[in-house]
């Protein structure tokens, strides 16, 4: 077990790279990503677990980074939107106009990306369950739904 | 792409890839070390005198650099009535109002400082509703209302009352209207306050440089308004104030208010000009920052037996909360379009703005029109029911059209308003109206449809203007620079499309300056009122024309021909009958160089500007005047499935048909309308501020203030009619906010039909239906 009682330098694996960062025991993962690592793709929208704008993947699963302490993420693989490179879901978001202001987008992308990886055969009900974790105030959600559905379709036809 | 059309073609927004990679930067994303953090102490009392405020302990707290209270450089702010101290002074007027601001090295230290401030209030009776505000001998929210300075000369606050303004419409002869009416209905409506809830909370930063430059970075819809206000309030030469606004994470009108900017300016001033950032938590953004007005209305309609409306008498009360901000302007908006898109010759309307001890309000998507639409549409629905007429037919019969006049007695044309009948006909098809608007399913549920029409005009200052600057790069591509903020709808891309179309060039060679910097970008009043495409579009066309004439002038020399023979397309100037003789933009960037090496002309810099012409203030007694250049009309429908056993419902379908004049970017337009519809459904079904008896706002987080989530949305249909607006860019008229306007009314019409009752108070939740149907009695299911 590691014990962190004061600001310490730790190693965090973000987007496949080990990064050395200074953390206080009370720092949230969201804070460390944004303020220490300059990865501002994850956004604060409520810092209370309600909006999902801060979503990143931790060992492949969507996590609201405002609710996780950085020290809890040690030894885990963190993927942020900056780590997505030309993925199907990003293209689908662009083509389907799945965002307007773009503030919620990183969070939605991470949830969708995880879903496409973890459960590519997800049906409507599963998609709905996953995507209810996040809020978008600009779109009508339909555009986001179209993007995830087209992504899952593509994955399934590729595999099928 | 060359000569292909760029208007009416779906174009991926310019910043799209920045937004799907996390590269897009918003105000809170540029965090520099050495920036101080501000934190606000907010009032826990909605109305009270500040008896004591002790900051001594907080001052000594670790990391604290400064503490500011209302006594520090006091000034009143407000664009309509200067009634608002940035930090409360002597008394507080709403729950959540800033009482002190702590500046510290870190956010945590600032919060610790805030916790150490001791404040004592002497509570005063609260004004917790519109009726509280208007009752005789009401407690006054502003004792000195009569002494406030009003930057807007057309606002009339009434001293020793809670009335901030009253707008009157007197059109035709109301007595005659009643005399001609064979049937009369009256409806009372109520739309509570609610929040904009942009997912990006408000953020602002400021620094004051030794040279005297004040840099303000803010997530604002009105950077130029910020510049003006800061300069005026703190006597800084306007040119010294530079406001920077990158991408904004949603605005919906809420970021058109000026709130955090004076605070960060004061904070920076207090720490010797160092950069100070203030970012609102979600809770602060809801309770401390401005929100949407609440509205009550009484609408009385008179009509003939055939359903021709003869008279409209209505009164609307707008709860602006503790400070007016743009509240009275929304009340005015309600009045000027109070008839809805219907031809009514005799109108009497009063729209009254009042102060209460609720959180203050500012512009909100729809600018009051959601309320006026709700009022008139619910009344018409009642009229149809009483006359036993089809809701569609009664609306068609009264639909406004060319030759009619508006409540402010402006002439309506197809160009300045569009074609409502065409929108309604299209809507009718989309929602299969002819199959009937109510039916029972085998499961025992009821499927019902409700419709609503709407119209909206802008309500801008009579001198609102826009400008555009074009410059060239060495590769012959263009830079397009203007002062409208990219808050989401994609106006930066729309402007590029308009430019590409006029210059007949590929849009990929047009680079839009995404941010706004008030020192570099030409002024754009505010990114509000759905007027950006119209105003910027016209300024873009002006700049394009200027650019073309400069190109022809220099091209005539280069190609040794008359300018009249020249044309511009595909980034070239060429002889129209000999396209093979041309010169490219890239060879004209720095002027033209003769073979001898000598050069002439210099850089090409083109400009365009636009101002809405011939707007006039309204007459104080009759409301006659020209508040805007045009309207946008449309029709909407909502279909629901109601379960009478559980008093519950599901949203099935929602449809909008809007006369856009000309759609420039179809997918983007559709998206903006859908987003508005989604927000309209939120207001119709769940969004509402709940104040306790002490006027304390009780739902300040996303746990208690519920929004529509993924999957709760209905299936959307969005279509457009295109009746050109002659003075719009390529015929386009404003389309942005409109998706929200008729949705609450259409929903209320549907649920009223399904549940066979009248739902005139929003939101209509399952619980409200249950209460209404059962009187709130518990039942065994
Ligand atoms: S910021 Fe983490 S869920 Fe809203
Ligand atoms: S795109 Fe603005 S919140 Fe989703």
Short characterization:
The complex is a heterodimer of chains A (160) and B (781). Chain A is α+β, with helices and mostly antiparallel strands and 160 residues long. Helices cover 35% and strands 16% of the residues of chain A.
The overall average pLDDT of chain B, rounded, is 95
Task: Work out the strand percent of chain A.
Answer: 15-25%
- What is the CATH architecture annotation of the largest domain in chain A? Roll
Radius of gyration of chain A: 16 Å
> Which structural class do you get from the secondary structure elements of chain A?
alpha+beta
Question: What share of the residues of chain B lie within helices?
Answer: 10-25%
Estimate the mean pLDDT confidence of chain A: 96
Order of helices and strands of chain A: EEHEEEHHHH
Number of helices of chain B: 18
The first-to-last residue Cα distance of chain B is 64 Å
According to CATH, the fold-level topology of the largest domain in chain B is Aldehyde Oxidoreductase, domain 4
> What is the count of β-strands of chain B?
30
Could you tell me the strand content of chain B as a percent range?
25-35%
* Major interchain interface with per-chain residue totals: A-B, 51 and 57 residues
CATH class of the largest domain in chain A: Alpha Beta
Fraction of helical residues of chain A: 25-40%
Strand order of the largest sheet of chain A: 2-1-5-3-4
Walkthrough of the structure:
The complex is a heterodimer of chains A (160) and B (781). By secondary structure, chain A is α+β, with helices and mostly antiparallel strands. Chain A folds into two domains: 8-83, Ubiquitin-like (UB roll) (Roll); 88-159, [2Fe-2S]-binding domain (DNA polymerase, domain 1), CATH 1.10.150. Chain A has five helices and five strands; from the N terminus they run ββαβββαααα. In chain A, strand 1 and strand 2 (17-23) form a beta hairpin. In chain A, helix 2 crosses helix 5 (142-159). The radius of gyration of chain A is 16 Å and the shape is globular. Chain B has 781 residues and is of the alpha+beta class. Chain B folds into three domains: 16-23 and 463-611, Aldehyde Oxidoreductase, domain 4, CATH 3.30.365.10; 32-126 and 196-287, Aldehyde Oxidoreductase, domain 3, CATH 3.90.1170.50; 294-460 and 616-774, Aldehyde Oxidoreductase, domain 4. In chain B, the strands form seven sheets. Chain B has an eight-stranded mixed β-sheet with strand order 3-5-1-12-9-10-11-21, sandwiched between helices. In chain B, strands 7-15-14-13-8 form a five-stranded mixed β-sheet. In chain B, helix 10 runs parallel beside helix 17 (743-754) and helix 14 runs parallel beside helix 15. Chain B is globular. The interface between A and B is large, with 51 and 57 residues. The structure holds FE2/S2 (inorganic) cluster (FES) (2 copies). One FE2/S2 (inorganic) cluster (FES) sits between chains A (99-105, 136-139) and B (199, 250, 488).
